[in-house]
Amino acid sequence: MYRVITFCMILWSLAGIAQSGNLLVVCEDCEYKTVAEAIRNADAYDTLRIEPGIYREYNLVIDKPLTLQGVNLPTIDGGDMGEIITIQSDNVTVSGIRVINVGTSYTKDFAAVRAVKSRNFAIRDMLMEKLFFGIYLEKSAHGVVSGNKILGDAEEEFNSGNGIQLWHCDSIAVTGNHVEKVRDGIYLEFSDNINISGNTSSNNVRYGLHFMFSNNDLYEGNLFENNGAGVAVMFSKRIVMKGNTFKKNWGTAAFGLLLKEINDSEIYDNRFLDNTIGIQIEGANRLTYRNNLFSNNGWALKVRGACYGNSFTANNFLNNAFDLSYNSNLNDNVFKGNYWSEYTGYDLDKNGIGDVPYRPVKLFSYIVNRTPETIVLLRSFFMGLIDFSEKVSPVFTPDNLVDTQPLMKRSL
Amino acid sequence: MIKIENLHKKFGKNKVLEGVDIHFDRGGIYAILGPNGSGKTTLIKSILGMVLPDKGSITVNGTTIPRQWTYRQQLSYLPQIANFPGNLRVSELISMIKDLRGQEANESHLVQLFELEKYLDKRLSTLSGGTKQKVNLVLAFMFDSPLLILDEPTSGLDPSSLISLKRIIRTEKEMGKTVLLSSHIMHFVEEIADEIVYLLEGKIYFKGSLDALKELTGEGNVEHAIAAIATTQTYV
Amino acid sequence: MYKILKYCFYDLIRSRWSYVYFLFYLLLGFMLLFLNNDLSKAVITLLNIIIVLVPLIGTIFGIMYFYNSKEFTELLLAQPIRRRSIFLGLYLGVAGSLSVSLVLGLGIPFVLYGLMKSGVIWDFGLLLLIGTALSFIFTALSFNIAVTQDNKIKGFGYSVLLWLFMAVIYDGLFLLSLIFFEEYPLDRYSLGATLLNPIDLSRILILLKLDIAALLGYTGAVFKGFFGTNAGFLIAMAVLSLWVVLPTGRMIFKAERKDF
Lengths: 412, 236, 260
What we know:
The complex is a heterotrimer.
Chain A: H1 2-19, E1 23-26, H2 35-41, E2 46-50, E3 54-55, E4 60-62, E5 66-70, E6 75-77, E7 85-87, E8 93-95, E9 98-100, E10 111-116, E11 122-124, E12 127-129, E13 133-138, E14 141-146, E15 149-151, E16 164-167, E17 170-175, E18 178-180, E19 186-189, E20 195-197, E21 200-202, E22 207-212, E23 218-220, E24 223-225, E25 230-237, E26 240-242, E27 245-247, E28 257-263, E29 266-268, E30 271-273, E31 277-285, E32 288-290, E33 293-295, E34 299-303, E35 311-313, E36 316-318, E37 322-326, E38 334-336, E39 339-340, H3 363-370, H4 381-392
Parallel strand pairs in A: 1-2, 2-5, 3-6, 4-7, 5-8, 6-9, 7-10, 8-11, 9-12, 10-13, 11-14, 12-15, 13-16, 14-17, 15-18, 16-19, 17-20, 18-21, 19-22, 20-23, 21-24, 22-25, 23-26, 24-27, 25-28, 26-29, 27-30, 28-31, 29-32, 30-33, 31-34, 32-35, 33-36, 34-37, 35-38, 36-39
Chain B: E1 2-11, E2 14-24, E3 28-33, H1 40-48, E4 55-60, E5 63-64, E6 75-78, H2 90-101, H3 108-113, H4 129-141, E7 147-151, H5 159-174, E8 178-182, H6 186-192, E9 195-200, E10 203-209, H7 210-217, H8 222-231
Parallel strand pairs in B: 3-8, 3-9, 6-7, 7-8
Antiparallel strand pairs in B: 1-2, 1-4, 4-5, 9-10
Helix pairs in contact in B: 7-8
Chain C: H1 2-13, H2 16-36, H3 39-68, H4 70-77, H5 83-113, H6 121-148, H7 152-180, H8 187-196, H9 198-209, H10 217-227, H11 230-256
Helix pairs in contact in C: 1-5, 2-3, 2-5, 3-5, 3-6, 3-7, 3-9, 5-6, 5-11, 6-7, 6-9, 6-11, 8-9
């Protein structure tokens, strides 16, 4: 609830800004021929209207509350010299501008648009191309990043930057952005109360979305597709992941979602489609997984060590090569009332729940965990036989690792 | 025509031929006789190159045969069991063998003789044993080979076909061909053979004309004469 | 030889079993495509079937045909034809007709479905190539058994055992050895062990071409590093060819020294 209030407050304050102040027009034949000139001459709460054209400028520092408004997507070309727009004041809005040619550096994280210690800012409907970092928010709060399109051309991890980066931020809404071909699509470090929704993050070199040491965040209704490694949530608490789609993250070290050292979070209504690993879970405690769809993944769930008190209910597992991989004989997690497409039991009392428990860990999956090289026997006739016999009379797989109430039909 | 010297063959521990020396001259009908397991078929198959001898030599028309194959162009063979690829039709089998040998053949009068016209379009798997044997005979006699080897040619034949068979064999002889046959039917042998070779336990016990055999054993009846040799010494 | 091949092929093409085999693949192809609607999924399912069924059918059919055509063989042996030609002809006829059933049976539904335009044509081509190679390999192996074993029952038993060994037992031993030596680096070993068994080699070659290769993880990367190169692929093909040539050579050698 408080997030909504925050959001409204931001909107209200921004609306207030737009109403007051003077209008300064920037264009080739105008009084102000460069954006820098206009910023220098503007008073607080003025609005700069930037007409179509190409402005070869960089290091534009906005140090007073201003609104920069592009008309028909004017271009600011940084000429690979360094950072382009830096917001160093509260109450700044930047919108509708194409920003290109951000300088690349190995010592400084140059961004197309950076906000430093800013409150009540908004960055909207920007188009960023040929960039290093896209939008870099630093110790900022109560801001909005929405409707931006960030199109990078990253190929290697070491010389590329992130699309949208939040560092030590609080209460920021990141919505409806489209990020592709950067290192991490959206990266959060030490950032709390962030709302990430309706974004598309695809074809990035590393992660589509990456959390580090960030708590109480929500991401909802985003699409993460074909990223180098998927989405990673690490060293974080109380994250809500809801209604997202994790798709086509194929590769030897790729997964839809990586959970590492994360506690007390909720994962529901998500779809994991065609990933090498749907969710890889390491050191995750007290998480609930509900009503997610896992379809056509290599492994739907890969549970590595130290995972306690997780519960998996009403999820759908469809046509995964392996539904579950587990690397220990101990199990403190609950699987109950899920639908497993490989389940072959029956339901005599017609209550929709199979009468025979389902064992989601195949023997092969267990063996591969022990000796990874045995994966070369994937899809061999022998492993088929072994899996079948283990299914009939389990010997090796953990005893209590069963879904005692497997569903007969997909849960909706 | 055929010269066999010191032929030895054993299958495992079972010695089938133990030093067979024999020659068959051009133009004549030779019957190879002997009880079951005496080595008749092995001898025939050795000549054909199907069985490879352990020791000894076989020369056919001047060719020493192991691992040779061209000499078989001069030779026609009638196998004991007439079993052919079942999916082929009779006419196809005939043209196949003609094609494989690449030789001129005269099968039409044989087909007529054995009344096989109505079977030409039938698949071999649908034919009766006797009919198959007739097809077998057609295949053996349709080429103009100087040497004919017939393993149990009479088996499964009806009387009229048997008469035709005898007539054909005589005609072939008149054309100066050599015929080598094995049979258990003594009347047939008596009627047709010029010379008899009696084989027992891998050795030749007798080779000579029927009259010589009767004279030697003092039996008027061929069957008795044959039975008599088995109990006495070698008469070669 | 070509004449023998021609007639043997002719004979088999008209046999009921060739039709059953052909129709089976035809049906399978149509079913997979129209139930699945996904070409690359269909290729995976086909892989599973091909690496089990093609060797089995090749072995059983090969040994049955060899024994059943005993009289035909003897008829041919009495003809002026080289022994080598007879057996090579028979072998190529059987392996060829099995391959034709496979290639046409699977090819027709795939072509009708619009394979030519899709990207999986190479994967599918490889699948058919490998299916053909397996047909030739296992027919050659079964002919080897048949030529040295006159007892039909024993020969049949041996060939089923052979199939069982290559398709199942080998992988079991392979798995046990991997688990037993798990502390050691096993990538090269598993590469070698895969190369030695034509069924495993075929499976890996196809898996590496498919998306599913990502599941193979690090080991898969090592395999891809080897088979992905032209040289590696050529080595794999050379191994498959050796599996055809060596048993065929031995079969001919034995046949030339056999009494009929």
